[in-house]
C-alpha cells in the first residue's frame, strides 16, 4: 500500500491494542490512534480514520453503536470488527451494519492483518477514496 492511512484501534484491552499496534507498525503503518472507549472514538471521528479495528464488546458503548456512528460520519471508512468470542450472529450483524471484515483476536496473525490491509487497498482503489 502506497499510502499511510489513519488507523483507529478501538478496544478496552491494552494487551490486544498493543499487539495490534505492533503488527501494524511492523507492516509499515505509523498513523495509528488508539482508544480505550467507544465514546472517545466517536468524539474523534473528525480525524477521518480510513481503517478502524473495533472491538465488539466495549464497556461504555456497544460496538454496533460505534460502527453505526462511524458509518454515519464516513460511509467509506473500512471497519474491521474484532472479538475474542467466535459468534456467527455477531459476525452477521457486523457485516449487516457495515463492517467490512471480522477478526477473531486469538487467530490474528501478521498474515491475517496483512490480508485486511490488502483488502483495504483494493477497496480504496474501487471507491477512489484518498486519505
- Along the chain, the helix and strand elements come as EHEHEHEHEH
Give the helix proportion (percent range): 40-55%
Low-confidence stretches: 125-131
Number of separate strands? 5
Give the N-terminus to C-terminus distance in angstroms: 12 Å
Number of helices: 5
Which overall shape is indicated by the principal axes computed on the Cα atoms?
Answer: globular
| Structural class computed from helices and strand pairing | alpha/beta
Largest sheet: 5 strands, parallel
* Major sheet strand order: 2-1-3-4-5
Radius of gyration: 13 Å
Mean pLDDT: 84
User: What share of residues are in beta strands?
Assistant: 15-25%
Molecular structure report:
There is one protein chain. Helices cover 44% and strands 18% of the residues. Strands 2-1-3-4-5 form a 5-stranded parallel β-sheet, with helices on both faces. It contains 5 helices and 5 strands; from the N terminus they run βαβαβαβαβα. The longest helix is centred in the last third of the chain and has 18 residues, at 110-127. The protein has 131 residues and is an alpha/beta fold. The protein has helices at 14-26, 38-43, 63-73, 88-96, 110-127; strands spanning 7-10, 32-35, 51-55, 78-83, 101-104. Helix 3 (63-73) links the parallel strand 3 and strand 4. The model is unreliable at 125-131 (pLDDT under 50).
Amino acid at each position: 500500500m502506497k499510502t499511510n492511512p489513519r488507523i483507529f484501534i478501538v478496544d478496552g484491552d491494552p494487551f490486544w491494542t498493543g499487539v495490534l499496534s505492533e503488527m501494524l507498525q511492523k507492516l509499515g503503518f505509523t498513523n495509528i490512534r488508539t482508544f480505550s472507549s467507544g465514546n472517545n472514538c466517536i468524539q474523534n471521528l473528525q480525524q477521518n480514520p480510513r481503517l478502524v479495528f473495533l472491538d465488539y464488546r466495549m464497556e461504555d458503548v456497544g460496538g454496533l453503536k460505534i460502527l453505526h456512528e462511524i458509518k454515519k460520519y464516513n460511509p467509506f471508512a473500512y471497519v474491521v470488527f474484532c472479538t475474542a468470542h467466535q459468534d456467527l450472529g455477531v459476525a452477521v450483524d457486523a457485516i449487516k451494519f457495515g463492517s467490512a471484515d471480522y477478526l477473531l483476536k486469538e487467530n490474528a496473525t501478521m498474515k491475517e492483518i496483512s490480508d485486511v490491509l490488502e483488502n483495504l487497498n483494493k477497496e480504496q482503489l474501487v471507491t477512489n477514496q484518498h486519505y
